Q: What sequence folds into this?
């Protein structure tokens, strides 16, 4: 059943992370939006690689590499944002977001959208983020697993029990009953077995060879800190809601700390969405490829208006987006 889009007062722009990419992303958009084409062109120059060709044509195995996947998703998301701003300008209309947020990698995109980072800085940071994570993963091998059907507290207790011989912990809490754990291989296996015994609906090892959002990424976090120190971050134009503690990030030091610490801390997306709702947000618009975050928001609260900008029907290029524009008048 389609959601009924009602007039809103407060808009949150949310940006996806890894896992949202697919070959062909942004290609149709670039054909119809000059602003989007300009973003892809700038990205090719800044990153010194044909990131646009990789997004549009693949191959899939190269696009799915952590080192490529992160800048590709970032650039495509910014291209969608530029196209949306272009559309609003053509309609002589402007909607100022009340809040920004991103899921993991998406926090860097959100920081650019909010004016804390320049696009060029964000693109290079995200490229280096992928490299740093890959290097940390080679030095400290780990893995991740998805657990469905257990509460966040149950998963935390399971990880504590499994961590007697190494670290494993909560990496992502997306919504009630949907979590991801991350850590060293041996305790990760133990935690998966304990989750099975606790009658989790499903426990699946993810095809990822690094322990993202865990202390195994400490060296990557240190590298990111060194990179961030060289940049001139600014206060965001509107607050970001962080992943680490679902805090409102309103100043440069707060954004700096979030981007530094998020590599070793868990993504509390459920709490982030609840905080945005508490701040009065009544429309969530996912800016980027896919609809992962839109589906999560709907699982958290189906009564809240939410849509994916890239959706073929209700997105920017779809016929139903006109309803959103009408609601914004």
A:
């Amino acid at each position: 059943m389609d959601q009924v889009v009602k007039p809103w007062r407060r808009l949150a722009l949310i940006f996806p992370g890894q896992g949202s990419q697919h070959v062909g992303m942004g290609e149709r958009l670039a054909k119809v939006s000059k602003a989007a084409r300009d973003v892809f062109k700038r990205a090719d120059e800044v990153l010194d690689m044909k990131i646009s060709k990789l997004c549009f044509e693949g191959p899939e195995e190269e696009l799915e590499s952590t080192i490529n996947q992160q800048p590709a998703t970032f650039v495509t998301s910014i291209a969608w944002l530029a196209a949306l701003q272009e559309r609003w300008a053509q309609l002589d209309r402007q909607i100022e977001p009340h809040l920004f947020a991103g899921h993991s990698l998406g926090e860097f995109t959100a920081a650019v959208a909010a004016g804390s980072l320049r696009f060029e800085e964000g693109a290079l940071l995200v490229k280096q983020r992928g490299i740093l994570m890959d290097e940390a993963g080679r030095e400290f091998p780990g893995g991740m697993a998805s657990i469905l059907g257990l509460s966040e507290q149950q998963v935390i207790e399971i990880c504590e029990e499994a961590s007697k011989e190494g670290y494993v912990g909560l990496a992502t809490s997306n919504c009630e009953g949907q979590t991801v754990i991350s850590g060293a291989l041996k305790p990760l296996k133990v935690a998966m077995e304990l989750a099975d015994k606790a009658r989790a609906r499903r426990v699946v090892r993810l095809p990822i060879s690094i322990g993202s959002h865990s202390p195994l990424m400490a060296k990557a976090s240190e590298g990111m800190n060194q990179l961030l120190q060289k940049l001139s971050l600014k206060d965001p134009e509107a607050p970001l809601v962080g992943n680490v503690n679902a805090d409102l990030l309103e100043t440069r030091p707060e954004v700096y700390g979030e981007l530094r610490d998020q590599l070793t801390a868990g993504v509390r997306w459920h709490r982030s969405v609840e905080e945005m709702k508490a701040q009065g947000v009544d429309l969530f618009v996912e800016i980027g490829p896919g609809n992962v975050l839109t589906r999560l928001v709907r699982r958290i609260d189906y009564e809240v208006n939410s849509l994916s900008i890239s959706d073929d029907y209700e997105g920017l290029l779809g016929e139903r987006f006109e309803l959103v524009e009408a609601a914004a008048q």
Observations:
- The two ends are 25 Å apart (CA to CA).
- The domain at 142-205 is CATH 3.30.70.250 (Alpha-Beta Plaits).
